[in-house]
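Marked as duplicate of an earlier ticket. Keeping the data here for the record.
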Amino acid sequence: MELLSLHSFLFLLVPLLTSLYLFTKPTKNETPRSYPLLGHLPELLKNRDCFLGWLTEILIASPNRTITLRVPGRVNRVITGDPKNVEYMLKSNFDNFPKGDVTINIVEDFVGHGLFSSDGDHWLWQRKATIFEEDPGLLTERGVEGERGKFMIAFREAQELLMGRFEGFVQDLWKVKRMFDVGSEKRLRKSLEVVHSFGMRIVEKQKGKSSEGDLLLGPFKSYKPQTEEQLRDTVTGFLIGGTETTTSALIWFFYLVLTNPSVLRKIEEEISSIRSTKQNPHELFTLDELRRMHYLHASITESMRLYPPVSVDTQSCKENDILPDGTIIKKGWFTAYSAYAMAQMEELWGKDCKDYKPERWLENGVFKSKNPFKYPVFHAGPRVCLGKAMAYIEMKMVASCLLEKYEFVYVGKDKATILIIKVTNLTIIDVMAIQFNTIQYKTSKANTRRKQTITN
């Protein structure tokens, strides 16, 4: 009887194991590799610590530069590197690709329903209110600036914890943790208390600036009455858009310039040439003089091509749709494009696409822009970055002042850079913070050497 039972068990076990093998065997010749029951979950888990590099490889390997990621229990995600698809999502059929409820629900604890986390009419009126003459010093109030260190620590921790909400393989587990105020959600709550307190202090400081209210937030209140919490969310959005992205871009710019001496030399020559036309050698460069720095402009643009502050930008699909390359997208799916991967595609940028080459942006020494859907670093279409011009001014001012005053030497070639995934501008991105050890610099006058570690 026992022998018969053993034979029966083996008789049932063999087909069961065979079925499991067949149903979990990965499909061949598919990019990325998919498993019948598990979808792309095994591949995502295997490449979780190098997601951006893995994503770039599979997009380049894909015949149409577009992939669809499927994970059980998660919303499917279509990611593309095709400029035609990017243009379709960001411009041609813009209304069908909003931020979406899923993304907004994840980030609203951070920025409420400000410009960067809203859709439709609510987004449109805020965007109109944002188009005004900004003073870069408005967010650096005395009495608030002293709290900036504490704020930045909390700000970056909040980004990392929000990233966990996007990455979690159990889709709404973060909501349960938030309900019980445990683990990462408890840490996030404490970080957001610091972030929101800092934003509120700026709102309070601005309120007394004029009889109409203030210079920074007045345009918003002229469109619609705003509560202090809504104004605080607006300030937080400005801090996100004007701090993290610009910082990331500058760090990679210095990294690339210092590892490409010929580029550094040309930038210094351009700065020196413009400086020679000024009577006061200590006077800051004017806006017009910064605009004449075409090679510097090209160098910053090229560094952002290779290391875009927003390397993967995500939307959602409002209704069933088909991209220009034939990719089918269902209602509720995530859609995204990778500016980082696009920079490494030869058909877009040539065989030297991985090289740092500012000259690709110059014609007879004058900077010339390219197709924004091929270079979506500042997004494109109706949601194109409103702060693009100001960002360039800030970066050129910082770069010209530092490179004119200091001599930098990169000494971190013995260690590799690390790409760190964070959340900025309310999209899933890889900020690519440089942890490349030490840059040595010396003042041109005193010739005294000092060291400083640059990290983001």
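See parent ticket for discussion. The two ends are 70 Å apart (CA to CA).
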